[in-house]
Amino acid sequence: MGERFVVVPVDGGGGVTGEREHSDAVVADPAPDTGGSSSSGGTVEEKEAGEDSVFEPQDPNVVVPILEYNREPNKYGDGVPKENSPFINNTDNDKGNSYDGTNMALFEEEMDSNPMVSSLLNKLANYTNLTQGAQEHEEADDDEGPKKKAVKSPQMGTFMGVYLPCLQNILGVILFLRLTWIVGTAGILESLAIVGLCCSCTMLTAISMSAIATNGVVPAGGSYYMISRSLGPEFGGAVGLCFYLGTTFAGSMYILGTIEILLTYIVPKAAIFVAERKEDEVDALLNNMRVYGTCCLALMAVVVFVGVKYVNKLALVFLACVILSILAIYAGVIKTIFEPPDFPVCMLGNRTLQNHNFDKCLKTEIIDNVTVTTKLWKLFCKGSELNATCNEYFANNNVTLVQGIPGLTSGVISENMWSEYGPLNMLVENKKLPSLGGSDPAKDIYMPYVVNDITTFFTLLVGIYFPSVTGIMAGSNRSGDLRDAQKSIPIGTILAIATTSVIYITCVVLFGACIEGVLLRDKFGDSVKGNLVIGTLSWPSPWVIVIGSFFSCCGAGLQSLTGAPRLLQAIARDGIVPFLQVFGHGKANGEPTWALLLTAAICEIGILIASLDSVAPILSMFFLMCYLFVNLACAVQTLLRTPNWRPRFKYYHWALSFLGMSLCLALMFISSWYYAIVAMAIASCIYKYIEYRGAEKEWARYALIRLEEAPPHTKNWRPQLLVLLNLDSDQGVKHPRLLSFTTQLKAGKGLTIVGNVLEGTYLTKETESKRAEQNIKASMSAERTKGFCHVVVSSNLRDGFSHLIQSAGLGGMKHNTVLMAWPGTWRQSNDPQSWRNFIETVRETTAAHQALLVAKNVDSFPTNQDRLGEGTIDVWWVVHDGGMLMLLPFLLRQHKVWRKCKMRIFTVAQMDDNSIQMKKDLQMFLYHLRLDAEVEVVEMHDNDISAFTYEKTLVMEQRTQMLKQMQLSRTEREREAQLIHDRNTASHATINDKADTGPERVHMTWTKDKLFTERSRNRECNANVAVRDLFNMKPNQSNVRRMHTAVKLNEVVVNKSQGAHLVLLNMPGPPRNRGGDENYMEFLEVLLEGLNRVLLVRGGGREVITIYS
User: Fold this and answer.
1) Which of 184, 360, 746, 1108 has the most crowded Cβ, counting Cβ within 10 A?
2) Model pTM greater than 0.85?
3) Of the candidates 819, 800, 676, which has an alpha carbon nearest to the alpha carbon of residue 746?
4) Compositional bias of type Low complexity: which residue ranges (predicted)?
5) Exposure pattern of 400-433 as b/e (b: 16+ CB <10 Å)?
6) Cis geometry, peptide bond prior to residue 86 (ω within 30 degrees of 0)
């Protein structure tokens, strides 16, 4: 509820000396258009003066203005004060909108910089997962005008958003055009080994990728962003460009596959180059591929340039073609059990014949009782006559028909188990059939035999097959379109890989079990009249596979030409490779025109190579390198245990990532060692170039190790501790558990400096300083605290702690957080300087923009040998000051002492807050932060300030005032005694006329009892006046409100968290005016009353936790 202050002058009580004109200036009710602000325009100074007056000494003669509450609805309409930013560094415009309720009065002085949690959550609830162009979106988001359009939240689920796109990208050209040939050449066992190796590689990579992709929001750019934001710009740029080149060459491969299907299986007569001799067939085919491939590339580039949205809309159509084709294969396999299709293969001896230029597998036939030669005869003999000179092997061997697809139950699987590798132009033979000699290898290549068009060996087939398992990044590239990316990406990607792995494995086995070996090794289906081999198996017609695979390759090529330019544009816009910056520009709608031109040019290189079998290993290299670095990124982050490494996906391990990385490296060299070296050389050159030019982005995980002066990125932030220890009179450590807690919080990671201050000069305290340092190091060793020790000798403790806070550390190796113990005996201490030093330290850390952790009852904290059982770490998140309260429990739970503890987060809702919505928003915020915690919203209603609170404040102020009046130092006491002595001496001299009485004589007769009696007698009237004033005091209203906050908050915290192993709580800032420091200590004592282990937390003025990767 909005509240306005009405200042009412009240007689009596404490006041502020010299501030009366201010109190008179603010009596008027603020203007009605302030919307609940605590001061109207022009009275800001007066309001601040009134607040500062709380901590001034009380003067009984001055009228104190008491702030009463005039509860009116504020003028925002919804009763919720607005915050322009959910983060801690608000603009000056926010200061007029600061919170003005009673319940949070203890935090109100800093409300302009640290917003209430409800305000933060309200902002975060409107968060949208932005893809590329996020900056423009955010700039538009700042315009709070009425014309602002609502942003549609992404709605794609796991199935449509990840599973199907991955399926479409993984299944493709190699399955339809090369898998049967790979099975025939490598045999079922080695084919399964190839499939197993490649699928294991992608599955391990998918596990690593799922961990990285669920460690925050991944913008557009997919794997490039994941790697660059994890391993730094040098690796990111190098691998990003490798991924770009891989995607571009994938476009070449898909276009070549499209043309191969078109010219070999759909319209063979469309070929421009026709071979007149058999030995020229390969060259003619390659030239046709180059011409048609270039035309197809140009056409696809125009389609992508003009209407990329149509490409995305057609994606499901292309996917449907793939799925229908695969279903047709399985249907055909089932049909072979009952009725195998009729695709006979003509064999001459044990050699397979190309069945293009003859229709009957016969040497001669009888027509009208006359024996005549067939077309096959004419291919091997010099004439059609029966006595013509024929090829010797043709003359010695008979022709036989072999069923190309004998069926699943034929037992052909046993013949296809083993490999049949061979050199270029090796004849495809069936070893079971009889064969008589007489062949001339030099002449055989001119005969219509089916031969190997390339030299085959195991490693070559690995390189050719690997592109059929790529495409696993499709889900992470679409993270901006997903309803819940952290859930969808792992499930969708791993399911897609599992599905395709099952499809590939079953296809390998089924192809080997259904199709004759010679037909499997016939790459282009020449022995079955140029039919696609996999098409001969399908049902109801081979054309289902031919048309389906044609559209599948077309679609995949278009997708590559759409994705690759955007990836290049993302790299160029990052500015890490200066000569690529021109490719960051595009059309007005953001389409990457220049990047598309470069992509088409590189794609043309692959098309000029023209052979699908030669292009496949090239893109295998680039994809393998990309996957290698995804695994490396996951392994490095897991081993470094960076605080931001909190993946939602839990089923990963650094060993799996390392295994995936090793497998990628092995596959690179297995596929083609020279391609692998070239790819690594390219990546190394890009890496060194980016390093030489000096990448401007601060992404690297090693910012601290490199001693960079610049502050680390939010995602790399971890507490670098300065621990302020207290020593006893023997220079022993007073609170060793503070070091235990440091060990548990740091786990050996990052920087720890343990500091102490000795009072005196270094010349006189050198020995004590060395002893203190040795004792501290011994305690650090005993508590397993890894870090440095720093003992400072200073003229006073206050300056010593200030020097430590300012100067400890070196360069980038400086602390950002101060840890200290709560001064538990401050009330009993005769020296008020102890708690004043504590408050000044709080002020110093705030001024230095360092976080502060204050441990209360630190001696009851667990040791490193303890193992806390089932219990909770409770976080009381009252105001947002950078996210320290979220990060600390996560770091503690990494240590075995706290590992079993659950995290609970409580936040406070005011009367106007929707607590149900707050809980939902907080749960969503924690989900994006990848933190597992129970959430509870505690409602604190604007109750009237109780008599107990009023009385407690009054007692506190009376005690403070009494101490100020009665707590005299020893020198003041002696000075007062001397004054009383002098006064008495003078009076005795006047009465008795004894002028010769000297002070020494009087001093000799002045006893201690007489001193106290005389002092009491002389001060009696003054004391009576002071006591009377103390009992007539009325508490300062601002102190009453602060005490109200402390009492009410303490009630709810004790109620909910008394049994917690640890309670973390926002630490209110000290008063701006030092006159109220003791009241501040009282407020904190009341706030923490009844709690055992408490950690008070103050942020350092910056965000330390992020939802981004």
Assistant:
1) 184
2) no
3) 819
4) 1-10
5) bebbbbbbbebebbebbeebbbbeebbbbbbeeb
6) no
Question: Residue 572 — left, alpha, or beta (φ > 0 → left; ψ -120 to 50 → alpha)?
Answer: alpha
| DSSP conformation class of 822 | -
Answer whether residue 686 shows pLDDT above 90: no
Residue 572 banded pLDDT, cuts 50, 70, 90: confident
DSSP string across 578-609: GGGGGGG---TT---HHHHHHHHHHHHHHHHH
d(C-alpha 46, C-alpha 20), whole Å:
10
Residue 376 pLDDT class (50, 70, 90 cuts): confident
Phi, psi (degrees; rounded to nearest 5) at 427: -70, 140
Torsional sign, CA 940, 857, 850, 835: positive
Q: Which residues of 673-735 form beta strands (DSSP E)?
A: 721-724
Q: Which two tokens stand for residue 644?
A: 């931001």
Residue 869 region by backbone torsions, left for phi larger than 0, else alpha for psi between -120 and 50, else beta: beta
The edge-to-edge listing of strands for the beta sheet with 871-877 is 788-794, 752-759, 721-724, 817-821, 851-856, 1094-1098, 1062-1066, 871-877, 901-909, 934-939
434: helix, coil or strand?
Answer: coil
CA-closest candidate to residue 131, choices 476, 486, 496 = 476
Side-chain-side CA neighbours of 23 within 13 Å: the count stands at 20
Which position has the higher pLDDT, 382 or 183? 183
160-340+451-691 fold: Amino acid/polyamine transporter I (1.20.1740)
Tell me the domain boundaries of the chain.
160-340+451-691, 712-831, 867-985+1036-1108
Burial class (CB in 10 A: 0-12, 13-18, 19+), 916: exposed
pLDDT for position 870 = 85
Is residue 100 within 8 Å of residue 34, measured between CB atoms? Answer: no
Strands (E) across 358-397 are located at 364-367, 370-373
At residue 725, what are phi and psi to the nearest 5 degrees? -95, 150
* Statement: 712-831 belongs to CATH 3.10.20: no
Q: Give pLDDT tens digits for 287-341.
A: 999 999 999 999 999 988 887 777 777 888 888 888 999 999 999 999 999 888 8
Q: Which of 450, 274, 251 is nearest to 346 (CA)?
A: 450
Residue listed under structure tokens 């990448």: 695
| Partners of 371 in the β-ladder | 366
Q: Which helix (H) or strand (E) segment is 183 a member of? A: helix 179-213
Q: Across 90-94, 601-605, 1047-1051, which has the greatest mean pLDDT?
A: 601-605
Provide the 10 A C-beta neighbour count for residue 22: 20
User: Which tokens is 217 given?
Assistant: 């929001």
Q: Using CA atoms, how far apart are residues 469 and 482, in angstroms rounded to an integer?
A: 23
Q: How far is CA 679 from the centre of its chain?
A: 28
Terminal alpha carbon distance of the chain:
38
- Those residues whose C-beta lies under 8 Å from the C-beta of residue 825, and which sit 6 or more positions away, are 834
Other beta carbons within 10 angstroms of residue 1047's beta carbon come to 19
Query: Same topology for domains 160-340+451-691 and 712-831, yes or no?
Result: no
Cis bond upstream, residue 540 (ω within 30) = yes
Which range, of 94-98, 700-704, 1010-1014, averages the lowest pLDDT?
94-98
The H or E element spanning position 495 is: helix 485-514
Q: For residue 958, with 0-12 CB atoms within 10 Å meaning exposed, 13-18 middle and 19 or more buried, which class applies?
A: middle
How many helices, marked H, and strands, marked E, lie in the chain? 37, 17
Q: Residue 807 is encoded by which pair of tokens?
A: 């100067």
Amino acid of residue 195: V
Angle between helices 593-609 and 612-640 (to 10 degrees): 130
Lowest-confidence segment of 36-40, 542-546, 592-596 by average pLDDT: 36-40
Per DSSP, the three-state class of 483 is coil
pLDDT band at 656 (very low <50, low <70, confident <90, very high): very high
